Amino acid sequence: MNRLDVAIEISKHVGFYLMQFWGRASNIEKKENFQDLVTAQDKNSQELIINKIQSHFPNDGFLAEEDMEKNSKNLWIIDPIDGTINYIHGLPSFCISIAYYEDKKPVFGTVYNPFTEELFVGIKDEGAYLNHSRLKVNDINNLNFAVGSLGFTKNFTGKFIEKVENNVQRIRIIGSAAISACYVAANKFDFFITTKANPWDIAAAYIIVTEAGGCVRNFTGNNPKIFEKDSYIFSKPSILETLQNIISEIGGGI
Ligand code: 2AM
Ligand code: CA
Ligand code: CA
Ligand code: CA
């Protein structure tokens, strides 16, 4: 099995496991604060993924949300559940995000939502797919037609919504950064903006969106630093500049 096949197989296996506990997660614990939670299912999901990868590729390294870091030029970046709060509450937007990078350069990313059975795959220079259908971002040329989404954007969400609510069709917040970004690749959202994203939130979706022809920038207009915490604008090409201008007007932030 190649690495991509391993990622897809383990995502579906872990997805089946996660659905058994959806809306009734166990051992819910606080991490940094009461809004930052981890469950037994986050930890078990991560362990299942890493064990499976190690059984095929014992020398590969990992960067995973629930305390796992092992450096290697062959690096897997894993979020075992993106959207833990949704998962705990039995809401449908959560996913398993797995990315594979070599020498810090993207190779492929997979994002799997076990509730909707949507599997997003992006392969460097080979395109992006949703359940085998090729994804291609179709542009819109006016923010008025846009449905956009926001992620973890404390102190920014209110200001941004106030600024754009009369200029966009709708803003939707769905609680999973990886799914929100993939929805830009799939033309469900026209943009997705988040601050303070970690590598595991975004590493897979980054490949999926760029391979679908979407734009990805940080708030300073540069390519985001995937291996650090950074701000992200995922967007259709023609509305990117307008979004960047709005963000600078309200003061940005990372
Ligand atoms: P998680 O579910 O893996 O924790 C929810 O708004 C989105 O933001 C999810 O993708 C969630 O990932 C992420 N998130 C949660 N807490 C965060 C934090 N402290 N910093 C950045 N992203 C966070
Ligand atoms: Ca978390
Ligand atoms: Ca996450
Ligand atoms: Ca997580």
From TrEMBL:
GO terms for molecular function: inositol monophosphate 1-phosphatase activity; metal ion binding. It holds the Pfam family Inositol_P. Its EC number is 3.1.3.25. It is an enzyme of class 3 (hydrolase). The keyword Transport does not apply. GO terms for biological process: inositol metabolic process; phosphatidylinositol phosphate biosynthetic process; signal transduction. Mg(2+) binds at E65, D79, I81, D82, D201. Gene3D superfamilies: 3.40.190.80, Fructose-1,6-Bisphosphatase, subunit A, domain 1. The keyword Transit peptide does not apply. InterPro entries: Inositol_monoP_metal-BS (IPR020583), Inositol_monophosphatase-like (IPR000760), Inositol_monophosphatase_CS (IPR020550). Its cofactor is Mg(2+). Transmembrane segments: none annotated. SUPFAM superfamilies: Carbohydrate phosphatase. It comes from the Bacteria. Keywords: Hydrolase, Magnesium, Metal-binding. This is Inositol-phosphate phosphatase. It comes from Thermosipho melanesiensis (strain DSM 12029 / CIP 104789 / BI429). The lineage of its organism: Bacteria, Thermotogati, Thermotogota, Thermotogae, Thermotogales.
